[in-house]
Structures are given as C-alpha cells and as structure tokens.
C-alpha cells in the first residue's frame, strides 16, 4: 500500500524545517566528534606549543596502558550493576505501584522526582549520607560494627557510585514500566488467572514477556546513561578514587584531557568510547531485539 | 458437567453503585443460558462474579452444588471466552491452548493429544504454529474457543464473544458455538447485548435491566409473552409497537384489562386493511404511511397512528406508499397489555 506522499508547496520550506535539528546535530555531535578524531592523531609537546601528527600511536599507547584496561573493567562492572539495579528496581516499583488501590497517582508522582535531580546534586546527596566523616548512614553503619569507608575501600566506593547512579535512573525506568504495564490488556491477566497461573507465574509468563519492548528500550537507554551521563555523580562522589577504583572510561577521558592535559590520548580514548557504545547498541539491536515481541 | 445456581447474588461497588441487585436463578446441567440486556445492566458483572474475577458482595454462587464465592477463578474449573479473545500475543496458537493445561501440571503427551483434538474440532490444526497477530478475527475467535474447550471445564463463560466480528462471520460463529456447546454438553453462560444472538443461542434466556432480572424463560416464550414493556421493546427486531392507552381510547377491545395503560403488538401481527369494517373486538387504527423499506423477503412499513409511530412487517412486497391512509387491524389475541408499572397484565398466551 503506497502511503500518501506529503508535498510542500514551497521547495525550500522542508529544508528550513529540518535545519534546526541538522544544525544542532552538526554543531554538538559531528563537529566535536570530528575534532576528537583529528586530535586523536596528534601529539602535543609538554608546553602546548607544538603539535605533531603521530597516526595511530595514541591508540597504541592507550590500549597498552594498564590504567586504561583497569578503566575498561571498572566501566564494565559499573555499567552492568547500574543498569541491572536501575532496571530491576524500576520494574519492581512499577509492579508494586500498579497494585495500589489508594494513592497510586501520589506514589507515581513521588517516584518520578529523583529524575529531576541533577547528577552532581544526586552525587552530593549520596555523598552526604555515606561520607565516612559526616554521613548519617555511614555513622549508622559504623555503629552497627560495619567498617564503612568508601574513601579507602575501592569496592565500597564502587557500591556507592552504583547506588547513586542507579537511584537516579530508577525514576525514568519506573515511568516507562508503569506505561508498559498499563498497555497490557487486563483481560490477558484475567485469562491467565482462569488458566490457573498464580501471581508469580503470571508475571514471568505473561507480563514480563509483554514488557519486553519496554525493557529492551530501557536497556539501550540505561547502558548509554551508565557510560556517559554518570560523569557528574562519579565526579561528585569519588572523583574516580580511591586510587582508580571508580575511574570509568568517560571519567578517564576527562581526567587525562582536562586535568592532565594529554589531549591526544584523551581524544583517542573518546574515539574508542564512541566505538564501544556504537558497537554495544548495534549488538543489542542485532541479538537482543530478536527476542523481543512487539504486540 | 455441572449445574450453576445463583441465590440472591448482589454486587455493590465501593462507590455505592449497585450493579447486580440480588439475583436468583438456576441453570441446569448442559444448558446454554444467555444473559441479555442493554449496556450497564449488570450482565457482564454477573458473569465475572461467576468466573471469580469480581467478588460477590452478598448471596451465593454454586457450581455443581459447591459454594465457590471464596475460591479463585483457577479452582472453579471454568473457562471463559473474552470479548477481545485475550489471546497471549507472544505465544503460538499451540501454546495459547496448552497454557492452562501446563499450569495444571498435565503431562506433555496428554496436553498434545488434547490440543490437537481441540484444534481438529475447530479446524485450527494448520494454524498451531502461528502467533495470534497472524490470524484473522474469525481464527482468533476459534483459538479462544479452543483454549476454553481443551480444559474440559465444568462451565463455559462467554463475554460477548462475537461482538468484534463482522455480521456475516458472526452469524456463522453463532451456529458453530451452538453446535459445539450442544455436542460437548457443557453448561454455559453467554453474555450479549444482541437480542438476535440471545434468541438463537439460548436454552434459557435471562433478560436483565438495571441490575435486575426482567424475565427468565425459553426464548420464544419470552418473545410471545414479554413480562414487561422493557422486555417487549428489547426482544424482537424491529421491536414491539407500544402505544399508550389514552383514557379509554381503546376501551372495549376484547382481552385488554381495564387497568392497562400501554398496549403493544408485534410488527408482524398487524394486518393492513384498506377499508374500514373490521370486527369490533379487534384493535383498529387509522394510520398514515410515512416510509416503506422493502428488504426482499419482507417489507417494513413505518406509519403514524394518531400521535404514535408504529412499524409493520409484511411478507414480500407491499402496495403501501408514503402518505397512503390505511386502516391497521390487530387481532385481539395478539394484543399485549401492560399496567402502570410496565408489567404484563395478561396471563401467558
């Protein structure tokens, strides 16, 4: 069936309408991306006076750096746990909120609030709560006999940034899961109940498979979030430390480029990061999406 | 195989709305009972209470003699066909039908036998590997039926199962449901707002209005002796002509009780006579023809008698044309009389 073709009376108008979006993409994506690509092939002397073209040498050095490999591992662990916790809790809260008879709208509103908090602020909130020197939760943990010190203990620092990063993303996931749950016809659940499926069974055999499109979408969005948008949280909470225990790829790009002023290697890292995220998204669409059933 | 008994079943929603106002009736083993009424009359609520999807505020629901008020839909041994079919969209037809059996821990071999048997009966055998989205409306309807019959339940519940089909398919599926129900002999409750479906399917017809039962009976008994003006106008298409008895205007018509305020007659029960001179014991009306609708086997004549609009049904073609002045005669024994409360005044005919 041929879809009716939209025709504009003016030949220039459609280009004008597209122009803002194209301009934004050019200025904020293609231009910096090409700059990064270009810078990644340059090396600057220690005084920033001269640049020379070194080809792929920056990439060779970055990939041979044990700190970079560490950062890859940190990012892997951080992303997997952040995404898993944010998706898992988002879904759990959505399912529980749907069961409420009273105050459902109120709970939903409250659940959405954390999303409005800026990453750095969210980081500070968690830092204040869990800072070993002044955090009230840190005090409680220590009183309970637990040796809580994320400033020295790398694993505890990791748990703290994962918690803060996941906490902020739960709202977003919650919202989409609530919408996804509401799109499932009630009669399907009733049919399954008549078919003898208990509540847990209904969830895993009917509701969860039907939420798959939502879950898949959120998986992609959350992965990108964990890779890029968590910079502010890490910067505020741990600054990548202790040591390099919470230095994710995006944080290392910042550290090497803007703190250590090694522009060439920092640019090479951001190019690699870009490739990783493109590859990850492609893999998700190629393999995970096959298992998704769109109603 | 089971009987279904409802006694004083009542549904009160938390907001104070009383959807079902204390209904009592029994359905014998193997019977197909149709609940019919306009939307909002409580028929679907009643069905959902039988299914266990809605709680029963008061009264008792018994399946095969056992009280089921407090047990869940899964343990009631019922199967339900939903208006939108409620097929699981991510499962193949086979799995849709097998789902309820698997949940009950039936063996693989037994499940396979049952699913294939049901599929063969419903001519679905070649569709078992398809997803519901790849089926036509009629096929989905069959799968929904299949999912109900593989379970071999005590009671079938149908919630307006044909309302999403086009008119031709609806007629066809109506016959199939009737045949299937008869051959399986499973006690069934069928909810519809379509009086034609109700008339053709029912062993027992329950006409409901505003949460109450207006009349229970065999379809033709209900048609021939409607218990109230509501039933008279709801059952039968076109519906019965109901005329208010303006103070003694029709007095003297034989068989019409003195306290009648409304009389009615079926469109097919009136005769058209050109000249006056009918027997005085029959009802005669002067009518002006307003419109004629020939539909082939019969014709509908829309006319005005005094201040009232009436519809007549005559076989084949009619000579009537708009603006003709005719005299309508209704034989005395075809006249239905209703009192001030809208209830029927005569004994059954």
Automatic annotation (TrEMBL), chain A:
<feature type="domain" description="ABC transmembrane type-1">
    <location>
        <begin position="72"/>
        <end position="284"/>
    </location>
</feature>
<feature type="transmembrane region" description="Helical">
    <location>
        <begin position="157"/>
        <end position="182"/>
    </location>
</feature>
<dbReference type="InterPro" id="IPR050809">
    <property type="entry name" value="UgpAE/MalFG_permease"/>
</dbReference>
<feature type="transmembrane region" description="Helical">
    <location>
        <begin position="76"/>
        <end position="97"/>
    </location>
</feature>
<keyword id="KW-1003">Cell membrane</keyword>
<dbReference type="InterPro" id="IPR000515">
    <property type="entry name" value="MetI-like"/>
</dbReference>
<protein>
    <recommendedName>
        <fullName>sn-glycerol-3-phosphate transport system permease protein UgpA</fullName>
    </recommendedName>
</protein>
<feature type="transmembrane region" description="Helical">
    <location>
        <begin position="203"/>
        <end position="228"/>
    </location>
</feature>
<dbReference type="GO" id="GO:0055085">
    <property type="term" value="P:transmembrane transport"/>
</dbReference>
<keyword id="KW-1133">Transmembrane helix</keyword>
<feature type="transmembrane region" description="Helical">
    <location>
        <begin position="12"/>
        <end position="31"/>
    </location>
</feature>
<keyword id="KW-0472">Membrane</keyword>
<feature type="transmembrane region" description="Helical">
    <location>
        <begin position="109"/>
        <end position="130"/>
    </location>
</feature>
<comment type="function">
    <text>Part of the ABC transporter complex UgpBAEC involved in sn-glycerol-3-phosphate (G3P) import. Probably responsible for the translocation of the substrate across the membrane.</text>
</comment>
<comment type="similarity">
    <text>Belongs to the binding-protein-dependent transport system permease family.</text>
</comment>
<keyword id="KW-0813">Transport</keyword>
<feature type="transmembrane region" description="Helical">
    <location>
        <begin position="267"/>
        <end position="288"/>
    </location>
</feature>
<dbReference type="Pfam" id="PF00528">
    <property type="entry name" value="BPD_transp_1"/>
</dbReference>
<dbReference type="InterPro" id="IPR035906">
    <property type="entry name" value="MetI-like_sf"/>
</dbReference>
<keyword id="KW-0812">Transmembrane</keyword>
<comment type="subunit">
    <text>The complex is composed of two ATP-binding proteins (UgpC), two transmembrane proteins (UgpA and UgpE) and a solute-binding protein (UgpB).</text>
</comment>
<dbReference type="GO" id="GO:0005886">
    <property type="term" value="C:plasma membrane"/>
</dbReference>
UniProtKB/TrEMBL annotation, chain B:
<dbReference type="Pfam" id="PF08402">
    <property type="entry name" value="TOBE_2"/>
</dbReference>
<dbReference type="InterPro" id="IPR003439">
    <property type="entry name" value="ABC_transporter-like_ATP-bd"/>
</dbReference>
<dbReference type="GO" id="GO:0055052">
    <property type="term" value="C:ATP-binding cassette (ABC) transporter complex, substrate-binding subunit-containing"/>
</dbReference>
<feature type="domain" description="ABC transporter">
    <location>
        <begin position="4"/>
        <end position="235"/>
    </location>
</feature>
<keyword id="KW-0067">ATP-binding</keyword>
<dbReference type="GO" id="GO:0016887">
    <property type="term" value="F:ATP hydrolysis activity"/>
</dbReference>
<keyword id="KW-0547">Nucleotide-binding</keyword>
<dbReference type="GO" id="GO:0140359">
    <property type="term" value="F:ABC-type transporter activity"/>
</dbReference>
<dbReference type="GO" id="GO:0008643">
    <property type="term" value="P:carbohydrate transport"/>
</dbReference>
<keyword id="KW-0997">Cell inner membrane</keyword>
<dbReference type="GO" id="GO:0001407">
    <property type="term" value="P:glycerophosphodiester transmembrane transport"/>
</dbReference>
<dbReference type="InterPro" id="IPR013611">
    <property type="entry name" value="Transp-assoc_OB_typ2"/>
</dbReference>
<dbReference type="GO" id="GO:0005524">
    <property type="term" value="F:ATP binding"/>
</dbReference>
<dbReference type="InterPro" id="IPR015855">
    <property type="entry name" value="ABC_transpr_MalK-like"/>
</dbReference>
<dbReference type="InterPro" id="IPR047641">
    <property type="entry name" value="ABC_transpr_MalK/UgpC-like"/>
</dbReference>
<keyword id="KW-0762">Sugar transport</keyword>
<comment type="similarity">
    <text>Belongs to the ABC transporter superfamily.</text>
</comment>
<dbReference type="InterPro" id="IPR008995">
    <property type="entry name" value="Mo/tungstate-bd_C_term_dom"/>
</dbReference>
<dbReference type="InterPro" id="IPR012340">
    <property type="entry name" value="NA-bd_OB-fold"/>
</dbReference>
<keyword id="KW-1278">Translocase</keyword>
<dbReference type="GO" id="GO:0015794">
    <property type="term" value="P:glycerol-3-phosphate transmembrane transport"/>
</dbReference>
<keyword id="KW-1003">Cell membrane</keyword>
